[in-house]
Design a protein that fits this description.
GO molecular function, one term (chain B): ATP binding
Number of helices of chain B: 14
Distance between the termini of chain B: 68 Å
Structural class of chain B: alpha+beta
Oligomer: heterodimer
Helix content of chain A: 40-55%
Low-confidence stretches of chain A: none
EC number (chain B): 2.7.13.3
Distance between the termini of chain A: 72 Å
GO cellular component, one term (chain B): membrane
Strand content of chain A: 5-15%
Radius of gyration of chain A: 26 Å
CATH class of one domain in chain A: Alpha Beta
Pfam families (chain B): HATPase_c (PF02518), HisKA_3 (PF07730)
Helix content of chain B: over 70%
Organism (chain B): Selenomonas ruminantium
Strand order of the largest sheet of chain B: 1-2-3-5-4
Radius of gyration of chain B: 44 Å
Order of helices and strands of chain B: HHHHHHHHHHHEHEEHEEH
Number of strands of chain B: 5
Shape of chain B: rod-shaped
Number of domains of chain B: 3
CATH superfamily of one domain in chain A: Periplasmic binding protein-like II
Strand content of chain B: 5-15%
Number of strands of chain A: 12
């Protein structure tokens, strides 16, 4: 009787201790991210933004520690994340590579954010750029939130155009204007019989297609549709643009020497190359600026946007804290603002981008870009398009690149060639 | 009886054990293979490629392995519990349901690569049912299980990492070997299962035959027993008759012979010596008295044993209880009243009537319920024995009834009987002053 009571008491004490420990134990969240920029430009301190966010989060949530594994390169990140998922020790909150997003959302590795987004009263999804938010959606549900984004803009060599007596095109310019200017500037300036001044470098059919409203793939990435009127327009335009150079290849060196009028650039590249010391090193010989991409006959001046998204593991033991952490990284205005100073990207929140403070910070962080107005960037972001994000998108596009490149150079009949490409891509996608 | 196994049952148990062991081995190998492959995939940096061919994120390698092993252990335990006797049918059904649930969990944790464990559950089910509708029930249950298994396949198909994807990690030659091994596992399991079924059906068939032969033996023994009982009755009757004859010879014969011889002497002497005759007659009277005493003693010896030892009421209760216990007839004794004092001969008659009455109810009426009522009315004591047996339309006055009547007449009593719903017998014995006086005189 006495022993039974003692045992019971011991059990109670043990239970209390265990509960006490369980409730007050330090909670640890892990974040998964890679070293380096999401937008393939050199960045000084890859973890600065994350550390700022973690610091802020830990201050707001005493007793919670946030850790991350450093030193994973961007090119290794996808495999690293897959290994963590397979081992069951994936981070609670992690950066989702765009090409893996659909895969992980469909296989249930990512937690749906719909519930948290609806339940959280101080969360308003409408502050994000719609396309950026949409990038984290799969089959109508949000599985990831955008951290930042970069639009692709058209770089204009102001010096060259001024020399040729051509005005800088307006933001609503078309393919016709583009082609006309390219034809006008492409010539042999030193008289050696070789073209040495060109219209455009690095403009490819993908960008043309996006600005002509071509919808190449079905949403699930199982079907390709290359045989549309819009796509034929793209191919015809590309052929015309290609013909301007008379078969001569434009190189990056030509561009660096100030011999090329246009080059599409991401905002991150712009920010990296524009300021000192890159500017001195690379493009000291000319003045340059950015405008929107030219619009095709069936499309408009949209820009291509690359979005960096982060999601929560479906197997996290702390879903509520993970959501709070994700919110701190993606939604906290202070952290979003830091994106402008600590990385080369643009915040995913429109209100942050459009605030005067942000403009001041941006101008201070990017010397020599006084004429770059964040309001314009914001406009561009608003009607930009994101690339499809099914898992085999990159491979399919590379395949299409290869085939179409061939087609443009060979001068095959556009209709039948597109048909052939479509067949091959479809058979690849349906494997 | 449950403890002793026939060799067939032992073989069945052994085969079931083998089935369990074999399935355990397969589960171990399958889970081990998947666990090792998954670890290899991670260590050779092909995790992304592997994941992109899967519809779900598989469980971490070790976790999946232990889940499979744990689920299998639980399945075996439930199977053991299910096969173990001494469970109510509700509990058993609950256990079986749990077994099916674990089965599904196990199949899912093995990524549906091996469905042989369903057969293990079927084997358990087969083991338990022995009823008449066994075959139908089993057919339905097996169809249900297979339907469930396939349904689960269909539902889970998009929610598991298929075995083929694991196999695809290896070189094509190895892949085909792996698939062959997997199929061999399935086939061997089916072979074992069918063997088990055959043995089970065989053993049940033999069991039935054994029971039938035992029944036949029992029947024969019964017939022999009945003949023996008849013979024993006859023997007892003969012995009783002999005893009576001896008794009469020893007592009455002896006395009467003595009296006759004495009287002969008296006839010779009566004229010559009347005084001697007188003396002689006194001797004869003495002999006659001795004779009477002897006869009484003999009669006493014929009285039933119970009545000798117990008072009438208890003797009657005892005979009723014994008869009821031995024959299975439900006998109710209703005591409305007993006379205060009864003579020995009255007691015997009452006892005999009850004994004879309930025996007749069982023997001739095939009754299952008998009510014996005894009570007092002014001037008489009555016994009514009513049964629910066949009765008889035209009462043949058998020996028993006549005998009863004769006994009652000696006491100036009366016997009535009729049959409507069963057979009813009423015996009345007069009680009261006149009768008592009468008897009193007799006794003097």
């Amino acid at each position: 009787m006495k022993r039974g009571f003692a045992l019971y008491l011991a059990f109670l004490v043990f239970l209390t201790c265990f509960l006490g420990w369980y409730l007050t134990r330090p909670k640890v969240l892990t974040v998964g991210m890679f070293a380096g920029s999401n937008w393939n430009v050199p960045e000084g301190e890859p973890y600065a933004l994350m550390e700022a966010a973690i610091k802020r989060f830990e201050a707001e949530h005493p007793g919670v520690k946030v850790k991350y594994v450093s030193g994973i390169r961007k090119e290794d990140y996808s495999e690293w994340l897959a290994e963590r998922l397979l081992n069951g020790d994936e981070p609670d909150v992690f950066v989702v590579p765009g090409t893996d997003f659909a895969l992980y959302a469909s296989m249930g590795a990512l937690a749906s954010l719909e519930r948290s987004m609806n339940m959280d009263t101080d969360f308003d999804p409408s502050v994000f750029y719609p396309m950026a938010l949409d990038y984290g959606r799969w089959q109508g549900d949000s599985y990831a939130l955008p951290v930042g984004a970069v639009p692709t803009l058209m770089f204009v060599n102001k010096t060259l155009l001024a020399k040729e007596g051509i005005a800088i095109p307006r933001n609503d310019w078309s393919w016709q204007d583009f082609l006309r200017i390219c034809k006008a500037v492409t010539r042999d300036t030193d008289g050696d019989g070789r073209l040495d001044q060109f219209g455009v470098y690095d403009y490819n059919w993908r960008k043309a297609a996006l600005t002509n409203d071509v919808d190449l793939f079905s949403d699930d990435g199982k079907n390709a549709n290359f045989t549309t009127q819009n796509m034929e327009e793209v191919m015809r335009f590309m052929a015309a643009l290609h013909a301007v150079n008379q078969g001569q290849e434009v190189t990056a060196k030509d561009f660096d020497m100030g011999k090329v009028a246009f080059r599409p650039f991401t905002f991150a590249e712009y920010r990296t190359y524009k300021p000192y010391p890159w500017r001195i090193k690379k493009y000291s010989s000319f003045e340059w600026d950015c405008i929107k991409l030219p619009a095709g006959p069936s499309g408009h001046n949209s820009s291509i946007m690359q979005v960096m998204i982060m999601g929560i593991s479906a197997r996290t033991s702390e879903p509520r804290l993970s959501w709070e952490l994700l919110k701190t990284i993606c939604y906290d205005p202070a952290i979003q603002e830091s994106l402008l100073t600590m990385t080369q990207g643009v915040p995913a929140r429109r209100d942050v981008v459009e605030s005067p403070r942000a403009q001041a910070l941006f101008t201070a962080a990017t010397p020599g870009s006084e004429e770059m107005n964040l309001q314009i960037v914001s406009q561009v972001m608003d009607d930009s398009i994101t690339e499809p994000k099914f898992s085999r998108y990159q491979e399919a596009m590379n395949l299409a690149d290869h085939k179409l490149q061939h087609m443009v150079q060979e001068g095959l009949s556009i209709g039948s060639a597109l048909n052939q490409v479509q067949k091959e891509i479809n058979s690849y996608l349906q494997q | 009886m449950m403890g002793s196994y026939t060799p067939e049952q032992r073989r069945l148990e052994w085969l079931y054990g083998l089935l369990g062991l074999y399935n355990g081995l397969v589960v171990l190998l399958m889970a081990g293979f998947m666990c090792l492959t998954q670890q290899k995939i991670v260590s050779t940096m092909s995790a992304h490629e592997f994941l992109s061919t899967l519809p779900i994120v598989p469980l971490p390698a070790m976790k999946g392995f232990w889940l499979s092993m744990g689920a299998y252990a639980l399945l075996l335990f439930l199977g053991k519990l299910y096969r173990h006797g001494g469970l109510e049918s509700g509990q058993r059904q609950l256990i079986f349901a749990a077994e099916i649930g674990i089965c599904m969990l196990l199949m899912k944790s093995l990524n549906l690569a091996y469905d042989g464990i369903v057969l293990l559950a079927v084997a358990d089910l087969m083991h338990r049912y022995h009823g008449e509708n066994q075959s139908w029930l089993l057919l339905v249950a097996m169809l249900g299980l297979y339907f469930m298994a396939n349904y689960n396949m269909a539902i889970f198909q998009r929610h598991v990492a298929p075995f083929d994807v694991y196999a695809a990690y290896y070189r094509p030659e190895v892949q085909s070997v792996l698939l062959a091994i997997k199929n061999a596992f399935q086939s061997l399991n089916i072979v074992l299962f069918v063997l088990y079924l055959v043995l089970l059906v065989q053993s049940q068939h033999h069991e039935k035959e054994r029971i039938a032969s035992l029944n036949k033996q029992l029947e024969e023994a019964n017939v022999r027993l009945r003949a023996y009982a008849l013979e024993a009755e006859r023997t007892a009757e003969t012995r009783e008759r002999n005893r009576l004859a001896r008794e009469i010879h020893d007592t009455l014969g002896h006395t009467l012979t003595g009296i006759a011889a004495g009287l002969d002497a008296c006839i010779v002497l009566v004229d010559a010596a009347p005084a001697v005759v007188k003396k002689q007659l006194e001797k004869i009277r003495e002999t006659a008295r001795h004779g009477i005493v002897d006869v009484r003693r003999s009669v006493k010896k014929l009285r039933p044993d119970d009545l000798e030892k117990l008072p009438l009421q208890q003797a009657i209760k005892k005979v009723i209880a014994e008869f009821s216990a031995s024959s299975g007839v439900e006998i109710q004794l209703v005591e409305l009243g007993w006379p205060e004092k009864l003579r020995e001969d009255e007691e015997e008659v009452i006892y005999r009537i009850v004994q004879e009455g309930i025996t007749n109810a069982r023997r001739h009426g095939k009754a299952t319920k008998v009510t014996v009522t005894c009570g007092l009315e002014p001037g008489r004591f009555y016994i009514i024995i009513a049964d629910n047996g066949e009765g008889c339309a035209e009462t043949k006055q058998g020996f028993g009834l006549r005998h009863m009547e004769e006994r009652l007449e000696l006491l100036h009593g009366r016997l009535r009987y009729w049959s409507d719903k069963g057979f009813t017998l009423e015996a009345t014995i007069p009680m009261g002053k006149n009768v008592m006086d009468n008897h009193g005189e007799d006794k003097e």
